[in-house]
Amino acid sequence: MATGIPPQVNAPQARAAKVLRHGKLWLVPGVLSALVALVLSLLYMGGILTPQDDLHRMPIALVDSDAGPPLPGRTAPLGAELTDAVAAGTPPGQVQWRRLSRAQAEEQLASGKVYGALVVPEDFTRSVGALTTGQATARPVLLALTNPGTGSLASSLASQITQLAAYKSSVALGKQLTAAAPDAPATARLLLADPVDVQVQQGHPIARHTGLGLSAFYYTLLLVLAGFLSANLVHNGVDGALGYADSEIGPWHSRRPTLPITRTQTLVVKMAMTAGLSAVTTTMIMLATVGILGMDAPHLPLLWVFSFCACVAVGLGTQAINAAFGSLGQLVAMFVFIALALPSSGATIPLQAAPSFYRFLGTFEPMRQVVGGVRSILYFDARADAGLTRAWLMILLGFAVALVFGFAMTRYYDRKGLHRMVPTPS
Fold first, then answer.
1. Residue 414: per-residue pLDDT
2. Is 145 helix (H, G, I), strand (E, B) or coil?
3. Which residues cross the membrane (predicted)?
4. CB-side exposure of 143: number of CA atoms within 13 Å?
5. Going by C-beta distance under 8 Å and a sequence separation of 6 or more, which residues neighbour residue 368?
6. Containing H/E element for 98?
7. Element (H, E) at 99
8. 391 with 347: CB under 8 angstroms?
9. What is the mean pLDDT of each successive set of 10 residues along the chain, which is 426 residues long?
10. What is the pLDDT of residue 24?
11. Is the separation of the CB atoms in 242 and 199 below 8 Å?
12. Residue 98 pairs with which residues in a beta bridge?
């Protein structure tokens, strides 16, 4: 006699050991997990292991302010000779020495266009000349200026380059001075052998509560993660609410009746919710970082607007990818916005010290564009030429690409009749 109970209810319950013996169960997650681990390891570690070896045209200012007069037997102040030797003594392609005036160097330091500067002061030749006459009151000085707003590692690399160049110049100059004064006392010869005092100073100081120039990176990471995670929460929540996915919270499981709706209209709902919730996540990020933790952040209204637009751009891009790739969309979006973006952001390792593959990714990866705008607002007085203009343009491009790609894919699926409709359980 029929009991009215579906036959599968009376079927024997499967045991975990039996399920685990099926090789096909392991195949897809095993292959994907291995590939993801391999690719992530190559991406992250490949971008940081050898920054000194990967240096490519790192921009550093080279300033000759030496006003002379020339030493006896010379036709020009020592500054010109020294800067020529510095530029010629660097391995080709590693450093882009920019010969600038002191004012131009300060301008480019203040806009983040150079990572540091080597400065020959006005009285350099005069101070060197005093050494040879015994009238010196202080050692000649070369200034190595840092730019912490470009990131602690970038500024440190530039500082190492400028200090090494200054030291080599001091040794070369010392050989000339020692040869010119063969009868000098031993103590004087010791001073003449390495005559230059290299002083390290901040060329463009930043505020104290900035994590030594890393606050821009971590703030950007928060924006990207907030946009990515919020979009995925909306994606899963909307699918559950419309009856296209099960909803499980702990032991509680539910499945709503399926609502007939096209893929395009579903994407409209998800993108609208993502944009609306971005205002909330942006406010919470600023409340936590600026309000509670005290991060130094000038231009607060501009920072909020920029942060909101960045969150929206990432969120809409994530929704477009989810709509195009389905269940694989979250993995694809993770690679686009996080896995590929982090090592190519130029925020921790400058792109000039990264392999060429990462420099290529940095031309379009979202995190690179956002970190440039955040740095400009936090460290460089929101100057347009410090990366803010490019950041706004790339965010606008991100909006356009997300909308065009997302709706082009959903409309194609809808026209092909590839609907998401599934029978609602009775």
1. 94
2. strand
3. 26-49, 216-234, 272-295, 302-325, 331-351, 391-413
4. 23
5. 341, 344, 345, 346, 347, 351, 361, 362
6. strand 95-100
7. strand 95-100
8. no
9. 51 82 88 91 87 92 92 85 91 92 96 96 89 73 95 92 93 84 69 87 94 94 96 93 85 85 95 96 97 96 98 97 94 94 92 93 94 97 96 97 97 91 57
10. 87
11. no
12. 61
Displacement of CA 333 from its chain's centroid (Å) = 18
95-100 β-sheet, strand order: 95-100, 58-64, 116-120, 141-146, 197-202
Length of the chain: 426
- Tell me, what amino acid is at 22? H
Tell me the one-letter amino acid at 154. A
Dist. CA 369–CA 106, nearest whole Å: 24
410: its two tokens = 């959903």
User: How far is it, in rounded angstroms, from Cα 162 to Cα 143?
Assistant: 9
CATH 3.40.1710 fits 58-202, yes or no: yes
Q: Compute CA distances 53 → 20, 95, 174, 321, whole Å.
A: 47, 12, 29, 36
User: Where do the domains of the chain lie?
Assistant: 58-202, 211-415
What's the maximum distance between 2 C-alpha atoms anywhere in the chain?
A: 121
DSSP letter assigned to residue 183: T
pTM: 0.89
